[in-house]
């Protein structure tokens, strides 16, 4: 993802060039872009599949954020269930990353129009879910206000001590 914008810019420039040759000199560029498109493809799938994968992704992200909170660490970007509205975050990912890449790639491979249609449809579905996901953010905030992180730090330390004692028994 760190090279997304540079690579997308290069791809757009090449497909607009008169000497664009995907079978020869631009073959590697096209293959790289195809791999990247596959990597960011979740919002281009049918809604039920895209939603499920997004939920799984954020379960993992939020579990990491909860652990960071428990350990008193700064919570990594996108990992804080008390600030991240999944619907808004998904729309941002679509608007900034996914849709522009798919629009460019569709100029090279028009058959992916069905994916662009899914992207548009999914973005509209996310718009309709913003308030539902905002309620989840508020519930998470309320939970952590009632259960501050220092409560969890003790539990984490206790579980680490238990793990140490289990490990010691194998020595």
Provide a quick synopsis of the model.
This protein has 171 residues and is an all-alpha fold.
Gross morphology: elongated
Number of strands: 0
Secondary structural class: mainly alpha
Distance between the termini: 43 Å
Using only C-alpha atoms, the radius of gyration works out to 21 Å
Mean pLDDT comes to 89
Could you list the spans in which at least 5 consecutive residues all have pLDDT below 50? Answer: 162-171
Following the backbone from N to C, one meets helices and strands in this order, namely: HHHHHH
Report the sheet-strand fraction. under 5%
**Number of helical runs?**
6
Largest sheet: none
> Helical proportion?
over 70%
Question: How would you describe this structure to a colleague?
Answer:
Helix 1 crosses helix 2, helix 1 runs parallel beside helix 4 and helix 4 runs antiparallel to helix 5. The protein is mainly α and about 170 residues long. It contains six helices and no strands. The C terminus is likely disordered. The chain is about 75% helix and about 0% strand. The longest helix is centred in the C-terminal third of the chain and has 34 residues.
